[in-house]
């Protein structure tokens, strides 16, 4: 529950520090006194967007801080998951906003992201404002009410998993069918292109090898001429050339080996040169004799290379490898066409299995909701009859969907009639503003009994009602505050104000420099005066004071 709230320099609030209690608290005050400002400050603690314009004029920053007692609400998992300090009982949330627009948030003095603040806030306080009455027209809100009462979180989580599998299976089938249709549309083109590419008999490195062989054939005569000329220079048939010269040099140096010891080594080295040169000369001759001047082979190579270059240009590719990859892609797409029907059949079997699984789980989800819907119907009749709708008819309608949806197999609609002889219709179409407010209060009472929400704030939920109906609404809110829950109602009605166990008044004060909003806890005598003003207006009468005392005594 919210134990204390401290606000500094927020909008018209210069400084505010109040303590709150369990049970039913009411907040009153004239229109424009600052009740909405108070809710705005609480909204910042719940992770709402910060606006630098809300910093009080002349201040450099504003601060909103709240202390919560969370003992017994089972929220340790949140703090563990976000690695936040928590002693099992106290939680302090602080939000700071500078006039320059910089915002910071803290949970138990640890900096926190606004998203984390929002997640925590959703588990701490439920603020019901007038615009939330519009939620009653939304199918997902109606479904959520039924789910809360049914306590079917495990069933819904399993359904969500199976629904994701179902969606994935349908997507795979749709994509495969589209791909097959596209491939079949291009099948003749693909087969023609693949046939042309297969004729090239592409292989990694073949282009380079063919280009090298073609160049060799084109210059075969030059190569042979060069090889023979070099061979003659080394070893001519007439005994001339480098081979013979080196051999003669080796013989002559060797003849003086007995006279010059170093000559023997030199002669050996010349012999080695002679042997190497002779081998080179023989290799030159062998290479020259193996060079083929085959015009037919050259023509074959040039034709193949020409086809290769044309294919590259046609398909806007730069390398042989890219052409090989394109060939593989064409082949793969055609294989998909050839085996497409079998693949589609398998994907359909997978979709059928996923559909069956999600429908079976969806039926369990529907069953849990139908049981809860009957309880919602019963409780709403109990709540609404004392709230001035004695002839109420309320039912939860289930309409099967043609296909599974993210939320289940059905649509849920709240049907409502306030009068005898009128068939129930969708509540948003037939209920008045006051009736919707009473239905929403009843739903909040039902929900509060099913979830562990520490604090519930009602912002003028009494709009459109008065008299004994307002008193009945107040009694429901007071009952909601029993058992340790904290319920706060911002109200303009004296019947509700008198029912509160604790009473705060919001008011404005004007000075020569500015206007500030304040909030104060009222004593018993002050409550009499405040409620009397709510009954009679600005002019305080004895009759109003008497009526105020009577209201308070009746609800003591």
Provide the fold topology:
Layout: E1 2-10, E2 13-19, E3 23-28, H1 35-45, E4 61-69, H2 76-81, E5 90-98, E6 103-107, E7 110-111, H3 114-124, E8 125-128, H4 139-150, H5 153-185, H6 187-199, H7 206-218, H8 220-234, H9 242-255, H10 261-290, H11 295-314, H12 320-338, H13 340-384, E9 393-405, E10 408-417, E11 425-426, H14 427-430, H15 433-448, E12 455-459, H16 467-480, E13 486-490, H17 494-499, E14 502-510, E15 515-521, H18 524-536, H19 542-554
Parallel strand pairs: 3-13, 3-14, 8-12, 12-13
Antiparallel strand pairs: 1-2, 1-4, 4-5, 5-6, 6-7, 9-10, 10-11, 14-15
Architecture overview:
The protein is α/β, with parallel strands linked by helices and about 550 residues long. Among the domains are: about 185-340, no CATH class; about 525-555, no CATH class. The protein has helices at about 35-45, 75-80, 115-125, 140-150, 155-185, 185-200, 205-220, 220-235, 240-255, 260-290, 295-315, 320-340, 340-385, 425-430, 435-450, 465-480, 495-500, 525-535, 540-555; strands at about 1-10, 15-20, 25-30, 60-70, 90-100, 105, 110, 125-130, 395-405, 410-415, 425, 455-460, 485-490, 500-510, 515-520. A 6-stranded antiparallel β-sheet has the order 2-1-4-5-6-7, with helices on one face. A 6-stranded mixed β-sheet has the order 8-12-13-3-14-15. A 3-stranded antiparallel β-sheet has the order 9-10-11. α5 packs antiparallel against α13. The longest helix is centred in the middle third of the chain and has 45 residues, at about 340-385. The radius of gyration is 46 Å and the shape is elongated.
């Amino acid at each position: 529950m919210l134990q204390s709230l401290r606000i500094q320099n927020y909008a018209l609030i210069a400084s505010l520090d109040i303590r709150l209690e369990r049970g039913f608290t009411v907040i009153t005050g004239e229109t424009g006194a600052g009740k909405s400002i108070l809710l705005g400050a609480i909204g910042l603690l719940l992770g709402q967007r910060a606006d630098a314009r809300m910093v009080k004029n002349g201040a450099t920053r504003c601060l909103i801080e709240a202390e919560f007692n969370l003992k017994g609400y089972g929220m340790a998992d949140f703090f563990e998951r976000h690695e936040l300090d928590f002693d099992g009982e106290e939680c302090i949330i602080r939000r700071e906003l500078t006039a320059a627009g910089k915002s910071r948030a803290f949970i138990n003095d640890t900096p926190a992201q606004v998203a984390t603040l929002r997640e925590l806030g959703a588990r701490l306080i439920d603020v019901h404002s007038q615009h939330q009455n519009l939620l009653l027209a939304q199918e997902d809100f109606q479904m959520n009410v039924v789910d809360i009462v049914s306590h079917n979180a495990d069933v819904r989580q399993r359904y969500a998993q199976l629904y994701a599998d179902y969606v994935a299976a349908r997507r795979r089938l749709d994509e495969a069918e589209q791909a097959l249709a596209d491939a079949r549309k291009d099948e003749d083109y693909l087969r023609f292109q693949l046939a042309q590419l297969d004729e090239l008999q592409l292989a990694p490195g073949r282009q380079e090898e063919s280009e090298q062989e073609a160049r060799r054939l084109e210059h075969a005569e030059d190569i042979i001429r060069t090889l023979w000329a070099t061979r003659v220079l080394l070893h001519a048939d007439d005994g001339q050339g480098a081979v013979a010269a080196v051999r003669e040099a080796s013989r002559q140096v060797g003849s003086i080996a007995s006279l010059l010891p170093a000559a023997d080594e030199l002669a050996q080295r010349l012999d080695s040169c002679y042997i190497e040169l002779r081998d080179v000369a023989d290799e030159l001759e062998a290479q020259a004799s193996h060079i083929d001047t085959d015009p037919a082979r050259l023509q074959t190579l040039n034709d193949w290379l020409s086809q290769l270059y044309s294919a590259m240009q046609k398909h806007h590719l730069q390398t042989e490898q890219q052409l090989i990859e394109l060939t593989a892609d064409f082949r793969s797409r055609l294989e998909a066409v050839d085996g497409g029907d079998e693949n589609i059949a398998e994907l359909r079997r997978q979709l059928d299995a996923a559909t069956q699984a999600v429908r079976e789980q969806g039926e369990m989800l529907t069953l849990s909701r139908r049981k809860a819907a009957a309880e919602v119907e019963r409780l709403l009749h109990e709540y609404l009859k004392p709230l001035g709708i004695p002839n109420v008819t309320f039912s939860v309608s289930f309409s099967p969907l043609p296909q599974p949806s993210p939320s289940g197999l059905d649509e849920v609609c709240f049907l409502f009639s306030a009068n005898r002889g009128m068939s129930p219709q969708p509540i948003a179409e037939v209920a008045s503003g006051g009736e919707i407010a009473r239905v929403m209060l009843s739903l909040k009472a039902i929900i509060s009994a099913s979830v562990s929400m520490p604090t519930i704030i009602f912002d003028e939920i009494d709009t459109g009602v008065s008299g004994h109906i307002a008193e009945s609404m107040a009694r429901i809110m007071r009952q909601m505050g029993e058992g340790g829950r904290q319920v706060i109602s911002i109200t303009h009605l004296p019947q509700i104000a008198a029912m509160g166990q604790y009473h705060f008044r919001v008011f404005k004060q004007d000075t020569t420099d500015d206007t500030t909003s304040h909030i104060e806890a009222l004593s018993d005598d002050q409550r009499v005066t405040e409620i009397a003003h709510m009954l009679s207006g600005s002019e305080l009468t004895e009759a109003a004071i008497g009526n105020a005392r009577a209201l308070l005594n009746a609800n003591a």
